Model the fold of this input.
Amino acid sequence: MNYVPIPVAMLELGKPLPVDVWAPDGRLLLRKGQVILSAQHKEMLNTHQASMTESDAKAWQKSYERMIQTMLRDGVDLETIAKASMPSEIREADYLVGKEVLGGWLDLQETLQGFLYQGEAAINPLQRLEGIEQKGLEMLKSDPDECLFVLFQALADPQLGYCATHALLSAAVCDLTAEKLDLSASARSTLFRAALTMNIGMARAQDSLTRQSSALNDAQRKLIREHPQLSVEILQKLGVTDEDLLDIVRWHHELDETQGRPGNIESRRILRVADSFVAKMAARKTRLAMSPLGAVKSIFLGATDAATAPGAAMATAVGFYPPGTYVQLVNGDKAVAIARGKRANTPHVVSIINPGGMPLSKYMYHDTTDPQFAIRSPLNPEKIKVKVNFEKALKARQDCAS
Done:
């Protein structure tokens, strides 16, 4: 039987263990339900390389992810979340088969968030990361517009947690851009995984910084500066050996392209641009979110000729008004983009608020190539006070076409 190390440092004293504890050679050390009584007891478990079965590891991890998501939605402060121990209960429903990740984009976001929060203490990390990557690529290929819609909507919802949304959206934008630039399937897969993990060295801090109203302190600036190397070190501890992936993560902020492996220059450029693009569109306590059009324009400011190619491909791939973002139409309606159009500046949209500021009970689909429904300007998500239903928006488009 294969065993997975237990994150002993994350066990809480005085709480029952929800799994049997084994030594790697198959000896039973503690039975499910027994309690860790002291720091010495935890040290003993470390000495004996305390482990658990793979099925228990996956279920316990699922329980942890649900706990973290609940704490975020309940408004628990991030300092408390950062100190959270492994839960002492596992639900029957947490026992999933294999490395399959179930659900949609927000379920995947929750799963990735748990992985990033645990860092080097992550349970069964390589199999989980592979499951996240496979599920993400599968859903992205199936419906890129739905992917962008859900994740851009999630980016504007601080209760969901920023780090995992940023990672998933960056990964999706990277893949769509890499496809435009004709990168190989292998390079695209490596780039996607690099985007998922590039900020694992500061995942908890990344969420905290989005809610911080004061200026960065010296320690935070140092973490931001050093997090690519910290991410590489964590990934190596988790067993990642893909040198291209580690190279892309290590140098994803570096403008000096003589650093790192020459074969990854284009992938690093794409990730650097996508990382910046998504970050600019996320609100902070100290500033409003930048519009997609503004974020696209900022890509080209001061960029070298070589660096403009990824930016141009990215703008073409996701559009100036990507699905999930908001626009004002020339007729006065406020609308949400639901699909990319034939050109970057002509998405398919549905009106959700009329010119008088009243929410529409029935969404109205519009093709923005029609001059009477052309886009006047992008809208900041903080100015939209209604929650958009994607299925309802999609139905409005389908009803118009039928």
